[in-house]
Amino acid sequence: MAEPTLSREQEHEERRAAALAMGGPKKLEQRRAEGKLNARERIALMLDPGTFRESGLFTTSAVDADRDKTPADGKVTGTGEVDGRRAAVIAYDFTVKGSSSSPVSNKKMSHFKELVVQVGMPLVYLSESTGVRMPDAMGGTGMGAANSKKRFLRQRESPWASAAFGYCFGSAAWHTVSADFAVFRKGSVLAVSSPGLVSRATGQQVDAQELGGWKVHAEVTGYADAVADTDEEAIELIRRFLSYLPSHNGETPPVAPIPSGSGERAAELNDIVPQTRTQTYDVRKVIEIVADTGSVFPIKARYGKSLDTSLVRIGGQSVGIIANNPMFKGGALDGPACDKATSFLVLCDSYNIPVVFLVDQPGFLIGLEAERNKIAGKVINWMNALSLVTVPKIAVTLRKNYGQAYINMGGGLTADTTAGWWSTEVSFMDPTSAVSVVHGVDAESDPELYAQRLAEMAKGTTAYDVARVFGVEQVIDPAETRDFILGALKDHYRARTNGIGEHLLRAWPTSY
């Protein structure tokens, strides 16, 4: 007896149900038992309820043998809204062949990369993949059809954000390190190849976390802009990051309401920052007071700790703060701090976010290790990027400011407007070091002569000496810092271009 013919409606519903079933109930239940969300659950958290519009639901592998085993070809893609603003999302479905990439799924992803540029909206990757799929990519035909010229071109027309949830090899790694913001869930691993392949290639056993674990990327490579304990926290961090950015580089970021109490703690700055330049403090406390209440969003907090980079709001406006932190290495700037500053300048300038420097540093970290880690090149990379920044740059010196680092941090006319706290000290180097260099005298061998020479070297280094030659525009009470920044943001708003910069850093490498 012949099988009953399905109606078009029945066939459509069966195909749709098969695609939505992802890798099947057993794999989905296993993920739930491990406390991991699946791709569609992640999208549901990422986007405002009821806004997801899926594209490519009925795609599968082009390999006939895998046609029924690859619903949506392992990538769930579409558009929706994040806090009422349009966004595109690409979620890697690990239950379908480890979310490995094929020419078909790459075609889906390329569609959205092009779409966000054309229409002007962010692109979010929810990343977890074993890498490229075989046999799809094997042979000349596989590799010959696998790419396009501009697959990984980043000109920062629209923001990219990525969350690394588990194993991220292949395109999941490429998209994460290409993103403007990358959050790593604890336990995730990002690398060019899997530990197994690395072990076979090198003959050495390789630990996954040591190879490319979240801690490596948070503290050593700097790829991780933030770290999360759970899937839910990672997704919330992306939603919050996007709230500071415009939908595309042709507009300014949204302005938020100013929370009550913002600016009311200004007088505390006189107590938080010690007058004596050798005493340490945590500059993050200064940032919390200067910014709108509850608005501080740290970037790369575990990397290059002597420099703090944070997105904040001041007067409801998105602002990027670059601040020396004497709690770590006395605020001295090492190679990672230089890379961190450069990366942050690129982010802010690309998306029309003004930059504020809070300066208190003894200079660049010197020594054998620093030179071998290319500190000289990193210093000038930073200076090159700073020279290309076209959004407003505001610098406030707090205490000590020595040498080239003073210029990198907005001194010497590299910022648009400047102020110095009355505790500011500026010179080519720390006077205590200068005495030894210039006069060959130290405090132990000849304390009286040392004190005399030190007094000479310390002359002419105050905020008022800098102001005398218009090296700073104002000398201020620390309590006036927020008001100075608010006024500077108004004065330096680019009215001729409606606050839009020239984006000269748009093609700067995403990782270097």
In short:
With 512 residues, the chain is of the alpha/beta class. It has helices spanning 8-20, 25-33, 39-46, 103-119, 139-144, 171-178, 195-202, 208-212, 214-219, 231-243, 269-272, 283-290, 335-350, 368-372, 375-388, 403-408, 431-439, 447-457, 463-468, 481-491; strands at 53-55, 75-82, 85-92, 123-129, 160-168, 181-185, 189-190, 226-228, 297-299, 307-314, 317-324, 355-361, 393-402, 417-421, 425-427, 474-476. The chain is 36% helix and 18% strand.
Question: What would your notes on this structure say?
Answer:
- 36% of the residues lie in helices and 18% in strands.
- With 512 residues, the chain is an alpha/beta fold.
- The strands form two sheets. Strands 1, 2, 3, 4, 5, 6, 7 and 8 form an eight-stranded mixed β-sheet that branches.
- The N and C termini lie far apart (67 Å).
User: Helical stretch count?
Assistant: 20
* Strand percent estimate: 15-25%
Instruction: Give me the Rg, rounded.
Output: 26 Å
State the shape: elongated
Distance N to C terminus: 67 Å
User: In this structure, how is the largest beta sheet organized?
Assistant: 8 strands, mixed
What is the SS-derived class? alpha/beta
Would you identify the regions where 5 or more consecutive residues have pLDDT less than 50?
Answer: none
What value does the average pLDDT take? Answer: 90
**Total beta strands:** 16
Comma- or semicolon-separated keywords:
512 residues; alpha/beta
Which SSEs are present, and which pair or pack?
Blueprint: H1 8-20, H2 25-33, H3 39-46, E1 53-55, E2 75-82, E3 85-92, H4 103-119, E4 123-129, H5 139-144, E5 160-168, H6 171-178, E6 181-185, E7 189-190, H7 195-202, H8 208-212, H9 214-219, E8 226-228, H10 231-243, H11 269-272, H12 283-290, E9 297-299, E10 307-314, E11 317-324, H13 335-350, E12 355-361, H14 368-372, H15 375-388, E13 393-402, H16 403-408, E14 417-421, E15 425-427, H17 431-439, H18 447-457, H19 463-468, E16 474-476, H20 481-491
Parallel strand pairs: 3-4, 4-5, 5-6, 5-7, 6-8, 11-12, 12-13, 13-14, 13-15, 14-16
Antiparallel strand pairs: 1-2, 2-3, 9-10, 10-11
Helix pairs in contact: 13-15, 17-18
